[in-house]
């Protein structure tokens, strides 16, 4: 399996996990306020993780990318 297909599979898995977690939160027998608070916390955590991952990727970008790919066709 090539590195790009492994990364795509990992990204698809993480996206599916995020969707499933959101659906689980929405279908729990809790009040709307509790669900909104949980969703807000989950969103904040996800944004923090994305920011840290993008910072790590930007720092690695020039080191191992001989084609200097900028990721312009990303589907996210």
Overview of this structure, please?
The protein has 76 residues and is mostly helical. Helix content is 75%, strand content 0%. The protein has two helices and no strands. The longest helix is centred in the middle third of the chain and has 33 residues, at 32-64. The protein starts with a helix and ends in a 12-residue tail after the last helix.
Number of strands: 0
The profile of the biggest β sheet is: none
Structural class of the helices, strands and pairings?
mainly alpha
What is the typical, i.e. mean, pLDDT? Answer: 78
The topology string of helices and strands comes to HH
Silhouette? flat
Helices and strands, with pairings:
Blueprint (H helix, E strand, L loop, with lengths): L2 H24 L5 H33 L12
What is the structure about, briefly put?
This protein is an all-alpha fold. It contains two helices and no strands.
List keywords for this structure.
76 residues, 75% helix, 2 helices, mainly alpha, flat
């Amino acid at each position: 399996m090539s590195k790009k297909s492994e990364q795509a599979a990992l990204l698809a898995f993480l996206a599916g996990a995020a969707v499933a977690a959101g659906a689980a939160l929405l279908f729990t027998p809790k009040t709307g306020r509790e669900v909104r608070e949980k969703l807000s916390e989950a969103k904040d955590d996800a944004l923090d993780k994305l920011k840290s991952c993008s910072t790590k990727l930007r720092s690695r970008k020039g080191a191992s990318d001989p084609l200097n790919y900028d990721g312009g066709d990303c589907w996210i």
